[in-house]
Every structure is written in C-alpha cells, then in structure tokens.
Hints:
The protein is mostly helical. 74% of the residues lie in helices and 0% in strands. The protein is built from 14 helices and no strands. It has helices at residues 11-31, 57-84, 92-117, 124-130, 140-162, 164-184, 192-209, 211-214, 217-244, 261-275, 282-289, 291-298, 301-319, 324-369. α1 (11-31) crosses α14, α3 packs antiparallel against α5 and α12 (291-298) crosses α14. The longest helix has 46 residues, at 324-369. The radius of gyration is 22 Å and the shape is globular.
Amino acid sequence: MFSSVKKERQSGIELLKIIAIFLIVVSHVSQSLFVDGMSTIGVNDYYIDLSLPTLSLLRFLLSLSRYGGTLGNTLFIGCTCWFLWGQKKWKFKKLIQMYLNTYIISMIFLLITSLAFGYSNLDKTMVFHSFLPVFFKNNWYITFYLMFCLIYPLINLILEKIGRIPHLVIAIALFTYSFIFAFSFDQIGSDKLVTWIAIYLVISYFRVYRPNLLENKKLSILMLISSFVVGIGLVVMHNIIGYYKPESNYDVLRFNLNHNPFTFIFAFSAINIFSKFKLSNKFINYISSLTLFVYLTHENVFFRQYFRLWIWEKIYVAFGFSQIFVWMVLYSIVLFVASVLVSFVYDKTINKLLSFIIEKISSKFSKKNA
Length: 370
C-alpha cells in the first residue's frame, strides 16, 4: 500500500518550504535582540527581553515573531516528512554531501569572522565547535535532519510490515508524549528526534490510510484557522495575565516550542492545503532546494553571535528603536534575500564541485565492486 500513492514533488509544498525558511529567518532576527549580557560584540544597550509581558502592540508583535521559528521548523519538518515517506533506500551520497557542506560552510564563516573581528576576539569554544558542527549541534535542525535521514528508510520498512493498527497506536503514543505531555508539563521535556518521528508517523498514517480526510479542503481550512486562533489566544492570555499578575511568572514565549500541538495542527493543515495546489514551477523548486543552505548561512554560529548582533547594534546607534518592528521586518527581508543569493553562489560553485567529486569517488567504488 505504501507504493500506491503518488510521490512527485509538488511546487505547492516547495513554496511552503520557502515560506517556512522565511519565518525562521524572521524569528532568528528578533532572537538577536534577546542576548542578555551574552553579546559577543561587547554591546548590550539594545537588549530587549521578548519573553516579558507587555501592553505595547509592537512589542507584542516582536514577541510573536519569535514563534515564526517554531512554526517554520514544524512546517519544514512536515514538508520533509511529506516527501520522504515510503522511501526505503538510504541516500548515503546525499547524507555525505550535506555533512561536508555543513563542515565547509562552518569553516568559511570561521575564516570570515576571524578576518572581520580578529581571531583573538573569537569565543574559543565556538571555534572548537565549528570544526565539528554536526556533532555539537551548531545548527540543531541539520544534526537531527541527518539523524532522521539515517533511520527513515528503516521506519518505512517497519511501518509497511506492521500495518494500519500498530502504525496508528505508535503514532498516537509518540504524539501524546511529545505534543501533549511534554507540552503541558515542562519537567517532562521532549526529544527533538522523537518529535520529528511523531510528526512523520502522523503524516504518513493519513497519507496511506486516511487520504479521504486529506482531500477535505474545508476541514483543512477549519483546522488551520482554529489552531491559529487557539494558539494566538494562549499567547495573548499569558501576556495579559503575566502583565497584570507579575507573580504568576507567565512568559510570553512559554509556547514557543517545537512540540506545540497547535503549531503542528496549523502546519499539518497548511501542508495539506499547499499540496493540493496545481503548481509546477522550476524557479520555486530550485529556491526551495536552497533552503537548507539558507539555514546554514544565516544561522551559522558565528554569523548568529557576531554579525547579526553587530547589524542590530548599528541600527540601534544610527536610528534608535522607535520603529523597531519596521526595522525587524526590513532586516529579515534583506537577510533572507542575501542568504538566498549566497546560497545560490555556493550551490553553483562549491556544492557543484563537491557533488562532482562525490560522484567520481562513488563511481570508482561501484566499478571495483562490480
């Protein structure tokens, strides 16, 4: 039954991946306002604690922008799961290439940051971690993406063998643990890989066994709107209660979690809606193929801790923060476009060369084993 569903890549899902990475960029830009004495550039005057309750609409919108990362991550994971389900072969060349790209980009930014800020001024722990970026989870998404790519063919083989009921039971169990218990009780905690597997099991279950529900566009729109309203409502409630009752210690970012069930429902509904778009566009598909590079560049540990803070400091000194929300939007757009352009150049140069080398080595090994 796993082989009975179409597997072509739809541009609708690819477009959603682009939207997801933009939301992640927005979240990371606002995150750079939230450094609390940890600034690697020695300037903390512009620090803004986005977790604090506020009655300022613009300040609240800044806090909400941090949720763009959670939504973007969930959308990204969901889109990845949508494409990977049912595949039973390990793509070792792709994994090796992604690992090497992560290392190369890490080294490039180490060199650039050393030249810009002086090697002696760099955090030496960051320098050490930059030589093993996947192991030290400098970009947690990439680390867990590679981990998941190692196990999803095995998961697909198991799911095909066990059938519908066990699939449903396991999906419910993992979803309940990650999105209900871990979300409701902070002390339980949630493992990112377990959360990713839970998302994968839910999406694959509906694609294989309940495709009729996925065809219900009205239901998807209703779920999208309902999850958005409830999710935003919880944040607003925490903000108001936290402002008028400081002793409650209510945090505006309390629900900014990758295992937020309302974020998942919103993402699941959005993926289902976008998958129905009758859209085939090579440009969209290509930009979507760059999104992991966009993530690796704009969220590189050195760019995150040095350049992003430096840019905010320059904006603060030159213009102040009276129009901070406008600056956040402009900063996000410029950074997103710049990251796409850098990723394009990288893809056409270093990544292309790396792909060529890997293919040559792979073909040699294939000939020896023939």
